[in-house]
Amino acid sequence: MAGIKDQFVPLVSSVLAQSSRRHSVSQIRPEHKIRDLGLDSAEIADVKTRLFRMVGGRKDRELPNFFKALRITPGSTVRQVANALVKIPSVTGALSPAAASLPGKDTTETKGVVGTAVRVVLSQSSTHPYSRIRPESKLKTLGVDAIGIVDLKTGIFKTFSGAKSPLDFDEFSTALKVSPESTVKQVIQSSADALERHKKRRPAVNDDEGNLLKPAGDDTTTSLGDDFTEPKGNDNTLNKG
Fold it and tell me: Does the predicted TM-score (pTM) go above 0.85?
């Protein structure tokens, strides 16, 4: 169970990074408290909604039960939020196959921080939960149109931009070459390329900036061009009740 909980931490970190103005996803650590990320009660509610979208898609009738089951306070740590998420039976059934296949140190897949973050953002801007976002799927089949592309770019930007390693939105948005015809894999590749260009233009001055493409706790080198394995298992969204 401990291993499964740890695999949910990157998913939660990617969601938290979208709501935090202080930290990019590469700067969020499992031991960070929610208040450390600068999130107040209203933003915590936004985080819970984003987590629900990631798990249940657009089945809003399940939202009240999800909010009741998932307790997050300013004193909660990132790891505690991940642990609480795992304890929700319907979440475990929907996400554990996907989380279990996240890239690790012994794989040659695209490293988890970019691939996971992009799929998490897509679960917010598309009509599909995280577990149903396939690498070969085109954005248009996920319900992302030209307007949705703007939301997608904004979400990815917020995930990777923080106070210590700020990105320029116009530059990043221009560098991120995606369209409704793009596949999920192409979005991940383009995001990694855009981040790499930013890293080269702005020499790292600390470990956080130097490790912009690395997930917290991962000491491996980011692979930009390798395939990642599609999770196998239950694609079901939240169960009733």
Answer: no
Instruction: Give dist(CA 25, CA 148) in Å, integer.
Output: 22
Structural tokens at position 80: 């505690």
pLDDT in tens, 184-209: 999 999 999 998 888 776 655 454 44
pLDDT tens digits, 59-118 = 677 788 888 999 999 999 999 999 998 888 767 555 555 544 444 333 333 345 899 899
What gap in Å lies between CA 147 and CA 131, rounded to an integer?
23
Q: Are 32 and 127 in contact (CB under 8 A)?
A: no
d(C-alpha 7, C-alpha 86), whole Å: 10
